[in-house]
């Protein structure tokens, strides 16, 4: 096995194995594999339906929640296994459950709420980061459903929780992150907090996420090509989302009522085509590339390989 091939297969520590020529370029210029709706493997069928809006009224119907679970589950493996597989960007969508006896306890969501709370998952991520100090993790926290009442107090509480858990591992947004600068500072967690009131030096602002809002892989590829040619941000993180997206109107029933289908099956059929598009991006410098079912079909290795091509 060649040295480069070996580097790509050792995915649990792939950043530490990148060539020295890539250690001092901004992380914005590296190709970084990410997972879309990272916590969707943990959805709770006893939860109420959060989205789409026109299905919320069926929350009390178990059959409706079961269908929602099939079509909202975009990841198969837990967070630790995703990180072990080489994922370095996590898409974490936050919710506070209504009528929770602990009003400042938070969960994740995608169609349904998760069973596991935010604090437990963030501690798992911190523990993983401590045992892999040269792997830089980018956590994108967004959506913040159920924050309508006491919104400022809830954000303050959540931000303080993040800072308490990660502490000196947080890389500040005032500095340009490179592998070497993160290693030198001993800071390997970057938190993006998508809330306009975020003024924390420790936390980054919103990371742009580009996707095509379609179930057609060809349209996904076309939209991402447009972004890379005309709208690619400079000097900041950005995400190219390979993910397919269910319709938000009544045409959603064309998919969710298929008795033998689920979202994972549909995604797995489209992923080989989408990964072929990734292989063609050697000279276009996509930054974070996020996908569903990230442990399938060598998704992570395909993204990481773009960095070795860049080094050449």
UniProtKB/TrEMBL annotation:
Protein name (record): PI-PLC X domain-containing protein 1-like
PANTHER family, alphabetized: PI-PLC X DOMAIN-CONTAINING PROTEIN 1, PTHR13593
SUPFAM superfamilies the record matches: PLC-like phosphodiesterases
Any GO BP annotation: lipid metabolic process
Gene3D superfamilies according to UniProt: Phosphatidylinositol (PI) phosphodiesterase (3.20.20.190)
Domain of life, per lineage: Eukaryota
Domain annotation Phosphatidylinositol-specific phospholipase C X: ranges: 24-193
UniProt cross-references to SMART domains, sorted A to Z: PLCXc
InterPro entries: PI-PLC_domain (IPR051057), PLC-like_Pdiesterase_TIM-brl (IPR017946), PLipase_C_PInositol-sp_X_dom (IPR000909)
GO molecular function, a single term: phosphoric diester hydrolase activity
